[in-house]
Specification:
Length: about 200
């Protein structure tokens, strides 16, 4: 089942919608924490700080939107998430897979590996965000929901442009390596959607 088929079912059920928003918030927070964990104070740039701050703000914004459903999701515990295992491991697994690819393809290690993996993982995630959030916003509008994610859509578009600029500056032949990251992400995303669909069936 495709995500656009799942979204109407999620949005029309307040409990599912709250857990969906909480899952998205978790993933944004995971991204922000990964950016911060990989910081090198000698090379930390304004763009990286901005990106981490905006990912944290997205996590907070999505968490606040949950209030409009009337359902409480106070933490990221499994009972407050959709497809909790896939949601929690999605970004972590992508980071591991891209890092392994870079070790094999470019023989990178240490700080250079972490930074290159950050660029490629973030590029792949921003491509996904540029597809997922507009799709979600359309579903929200079709359902007449009070919830909206328009502010996130605008910021994610800026993130993608920033990642492309950094990749062009830092990584020769970046499009080839970015394509591999996108392929890895696409597989993980498909698995996540399958887990979501299974979660809904089991409700």
């Amino acid at each position: 089942m495709e995500l656009n088929e799942l979204l109407p079912h999620i949005i029309t059920d307040n409990e599912l919608h709250a857990r969906w928003l909480n899952s998205l918030s978790l993933m944004e927070n995971t991204g922000a924490r990964k950016i911060s964990a990989g910081e090198d104070l000698r090379t930390l740039t304004l763009i990286i700080l901005k990106h981490a701050a905006e990912e944290h703000r997205h996590a907070y914004f999505l968490k606040k939107q949950i209030e409009k459903t009337g359902i409480a999701c106070p933490t990221y515990a499994d009972e407050y998430l959709l497809a909790p295992i896939s949601s929690k491991h999605y970004l972590h697994q992508l980071d591991i897979s891209v890092s392994r690819y870079l070790k094999d393809a470019l023989d990178l290690n240490g700080k250079e590996l972490r930074f290159t993996a950050y660029l490629l993982v973030t590029y792949a995630i921003e491509l996904r965000a540029d597809e997922l959030y507009p799709q979600y916003q359309t579903a929200l509008e079709n359902a007449g929901s009070k919830i909206n994610v328009k502010s996130i859509i605008l910021e994610e578009e800026g993130h993608l442009e920033e990642m492309i600029n950094q990749l062009e500056e830092f990584l020769p032949n970046w499009k080839h390596h970015a394509q591999r990251a996108v392929e890895l992400e696409s597989n993980l995303f498909a698995n996540w959607v399958t887990a979501l669909a299974t979660n809904l069936v089991l409700q």
